[in-house]
Write a structure and sequence with these properties.
The structure is a homodimer. By secondary structure, chain A is an alpha/beta fold. Chain A contains seven helices and 28 strands.
């Protein structure tokens, strides 16, 4: 498993992984009230039209439009008020020539009525009579049956992540259960002899496990369910045993390597042996995160991340998040959160490599300024101090101060 | 409670509400692994420095820098290899003049060492001797104690919503529990005689409750806990009884009015009577959502939303979400998700009123195009088809096709 023989660009590397994986999302039926953030497994069709009955869009009087023709302030039409349309029920009467009925916004048009006159254009004369001061056309101030959504219409395509608006839309159609992609189980293994759990007292030479927790949180934001397998010592047999267990129990396995080159080699060897076809990509032309491993073993993705916490989180955003999305069946991605900003200083970069730089956003009168956040050792607090990441494309030798950049929020 | 006597702009209206409310967020201590999305109640200070020990940033040999001075490929320095630094432990040896030790990335510098030579600039001579082909300066390839974070340094301010990077950062410092703002309980009441729950069969004239569900989902995305009080008939005593109960049990109460003007008046009257100071704003100069009510009753915010599902969701984003954020103690908002796009067509608007228009984003070669999504009755599916909202400022008479706009993702 020699590292870095052939470095792929992140985009090519992801393509190779997803192409080999060709996953079929698993589907489950859940209650709509629990479906926020879940992904539709099939298109949703309207079981009935919206509105389901002809509704008034204003407060006023339901009329026969023909009865109002020619009406004006100087020459009003006089109509007999035969009742009030109850909210939430079918009116018990119908209109004949010369008749009208009081109606509220959202009320159901009585039989015989074909338009509504706004209350502002009417004047009460006697308890049972009203002056109409303006003519209305047929269907004026009326929503016809199916005008918003016709019966059988596709209202939500498959592969859509449900937001508050979609949850409301499903309820408008009485759809209280629906099929969604199952949330992928993501096994997370930390390795490194120097890594210990945060509950433990630190001895000299030891550092706390960061990756298990930051990656678990990232997996949750992407819609996956993290399962932590703890910290595994940098020995082949221990790492292999835990990886085999995680691969059997999860839909996707993420292993963060120890920080030394030998620990990374060990991770690659263990992943290669987990099942065919094995390692597809070993080394990606990106900074941070060059020693990334992408593999498919027995039909499941296995991703080896660098041990450095910033590299691990950046690379997980590039590779783990898309796999979680694909496993949920997401195909209709709402645009990612991107803010356009002006770079505060020059960012040099090596041509042919993609760089990701953490930036803080400052809101100024003229728009956002992106200010790079540097940290000598790429400590996790470099990201904690940042609002997002700026991508320096492989073709560039860097970005200039004052240049407009897209900041991907983290 | 006459409506619309004085219309405030959304921003002024929100300011008036928050100023009167002046809430004190309630605090609870929780486990860091459960803290994703929660808001820090106090600043977090580093209990120890990071790194906690001098660490190598490369694979190579720990040396005394002075022993390498003058070393080059043609005239290497010869050093005696006295051991290998174990990962995760303190080396059991110290370096004397002319000695070095094998060290891995992240390994702890042995006593006596003050720099590391990368393995690429060394050559093995004998098992216990190595050629150093390049001189290193003191602390070269070494991270000193506290170089990233010094002891006692503020690493996360108060009022920050925790993302994966902060969760990782807390763990790096062994902080497994922390104080966060309690998640506000948000009581949601739907009213309207025409509104029925989605489990029920629809009779003519009835519509399903959308707002309870779309607002619950929105409350969750903002970090609140929704509590639904169901659908209340448009009668003062029923609405008052449920509102009193919700106000006692929750931190914030949201009431969506029935669609008719009389139902809206009823909501305003009931809110006014819930407790002092009562209604602060009745009517906001915004479309959709003019009949909005903002109140503070007994120290808690009560917000009356229009019954139309699109208006309710847009207005809740403008007023309910900020109150939830303030109640959690959020003061350090990461920039909201905004995408810059080019408007596809003219959007007329009335000067002096703020308009919010739902748009779909199309990704083209030259950037995003914002295409307005129109729906005759502002049905909830208008929003479900949209990616975000564009604000037309009160001073504008509209926006022109081709204009660059900010799209607030929903």
């Amino acid at each position: 498993m020699p590292e870095f023989l052939e470095l792929l660009m992140p985009e090519e590397a992801l393509h190779k992984l997803l192409e080999t994986l060709s996953p079929t999302p698993q589907v489950e039926e859940i209650e709509t009230i629990l479906a926020l953030g879940r992904v539709t497994a099939s298109p949703v069709f309207a079981p009935f039209p919206l509105p389901t009955f002809a509704r008034s869009t204003v407060d006023g009087f339901a009329v026969r439009a023909a009865d109002t023709y020619g009406a004006s302030e100087s020459l009003p039409a006089y109509l007999k008020v035969i009742g009030e349309v109850p909210m939430g029920a079918s009116p018990a009467f119908s209109l004949s020539v010369g008749q009208c009925a009081l109606i509220h916004t959202g009320g159901m048009l009585p039989a015989g009525a074909d338009a509504v006159v706004m209350v502002e254009y009417t004047q009460a004369v006697r308890p049972e009579e009203v002056e109409i001061l303006r003519a209305v056309a047929v269907v004026e101030n009326v929503l016809k049956v199916g005008e918003d959504v016709s019966i059988g219409q596709e209202v939500i395509p498959a592969g859509v992540r449900l937001r508050p608006a979609e949850i409301g839309g499903l309820m408008a159609l009485g759809i209280t259960r629906l099929s969604v992609g199952r949330q992928p189980l993501v096994g997370i293994l930390s390795s490194g002899d120097e890594v210990v759990p945060p509950e433990q007292e630190l001895s000299p030479g030891q550092v706390y496990d960061v990756n298990s927790y930051s990656l678990s949180a990232l997996v949750q934001t992407a819609g996956g369910v993290p399962l932590c397998y703890g910290i595994v010592p940098d020995r082949a047999e221990a790492l292999r045993a835990t990886a085999v267990k995680a691969l059997a129990e999860c839909d996707l396995v993420v292993i963060t390597a120890g920080s030394s080159a030998s620990a990374r080699d060990l991770t690659a060897t263990v992943i290669q042996d987990l099942g065919p076809p094995g390692v597809l990509v070993h080394g990606v032309d990106v900074r941070p995160g060059k020693p990334t491993i992408l593999a498919v073993c027995n039909g499941k993705a296995v991703i080896g991340l660098p041990g450095n916490p910033v590299s691990a989180l950046v690379i997980a955003s590039l590779f783990v998040v898309p796999v979680i999305e694909v496993l949920q069946g997401l195909s209709w991605a709402h645009p990612k959160s991107v803010i356009t900003a002006r770079l505060s200083l020059n960012l040099p970069s090596q041509t042919g490599r993609e760089d990701w730089v953490a930036v803080r956003l400052l809101h100024k009168m003229e728009g956002y300024i992106a200010e790079p956040v540097f940290g000598k050792s790429n400590l996790i607090f470099t990201l904690a101090r940042a609002d997002g990441l700026v991508r320096i494309p492989p073709a560039a030798t860097g970005l200039d101060a004052g240049e407009i950049v897209e900041v991907f929020l983290i």
